[in-house]
What we know:
CATH class: Alpha Beta
Structural class: alpha+beta
Number of helices: 3
CATH architecture: 2-Layer Sandwich
Strand content: 25-35%
Distance between the termini: 62 Å
CATH topology: Double Stranded RNA Binding Domain
Low-confidence stretches: 24-32
Mean pLDDT: 80
Order of helices and strands: HEHEEEH
Number of strands: 4
Helix content: 40-55%
Number of domains: 1
Shape: flat
Amino acid sequence: MMMRRCLLALFLPLALGACGFQPVYSPALSANSSPLQIDEIPGRAGHELREALILETRNGLPGTQGEAGYMVVDLEERVLSTGFRSDGSAFRATLRLSARYVVDFDDKSVAGRESAETSYDVPNAPFTDVSSQNDATQRTAQELARRITDDLIIKLGQDG
Length: 160
């Protein structure tokens, strides 16, 4: 019985790899595997945007012939209260992320500006407003990463 468990423990990783299984936190989704190296972006929103950009560009960009690129992003974050309760506290807010970016390849440079915004409820309970804003930050960063990637695909496609 012990021998079967040992054999199973040895061959299970091979079997999972053969079927295409990839762990969620595997190194394949890290910045080192992307052909586009993205500079650190300060702040929580910057971290979320960088992670989303890594995921969006992990398969490369058209028109770059596999050459490595280096991206620098300048991110601006604004939170605007858009709805107020009778006591003056906000019950609705809008998070706006605006990014200017430059991507340098060996033979070309691409620059652009994109923005995204998300509205969210501001709960009245203590500490739940932080959770709401964190969720809005993540959703807005993912949308902004999609827009930046789409803009890059269009601009790189025009060069070819």
